[in-house]
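Hi P.,

Sorry for the delay on this. The queue was packed all week, but I finally got your sequence through. Input first:
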Amino acid sequence: MERICRNCGDSVTKNYCGNCGNNNEITRIDRKYALQECLNLINFDKGFLYTTKGLLLNPGTLIREYISENREKITKPITYLGLTSIIYTLIANYLKVENPYSEMSKKMYGKSSVNDIMIWIQDNYGYANLLMILPITLCTLVFFRKYKYNFYEIFIVISFVMGMGMLIFSIEPILNKLSADTFIFNEVIVVFFAFLYTGWAIGNFYGNKLKNYLKGFLAYVLGLIIFEVVVITSALIYDVIII
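Then the structure:
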């Protein structure tokens, strides 16, 4: 039976319009519908899991696929980074463990804006992670300047890689909850694997060569150092102006 598409007015013989792709079967809005809409919004049921698996096993192939071939089945990089940062934040807040770095920061920086911002970064690493993308992207652009990729494409690479890194960092609050006495050891182990993965993933994107892995690791570390220097310098300037 031929019908008229509610969206574009073209004739429709099946559930989906052949002209605009609109679904002409309107279902009732209920709990099932609301849940499915949320999953569709972030493409969690297919794209998120597919993206996570690809980033874990072969990040270079997945990211190159997104940049040059197919962007439909892969979660968008900023969306992916945002979701993984939220996952980290939820886990860290739910499994809250006393952070010894608060006292260490007070002893090191005293009552200053530097202390306040360093504690904020430690307590809100998921959000701070979003601010670190720019310096890491710039460092990666410099280290791999001979390649054809522009700033925006490298920004995508770093967003994906750091998104996967957030899932790795999400393991730390779980370890701390299981064994709070080994807080420092837990962090060292998680940070080691996160840094190792990041260097490997960036290098894997540019090709399976040892020098690419080393440059990827250095670009990431240097970007983090630049971020911290900018943050501390800004806080010191703020204190001078206020005083």
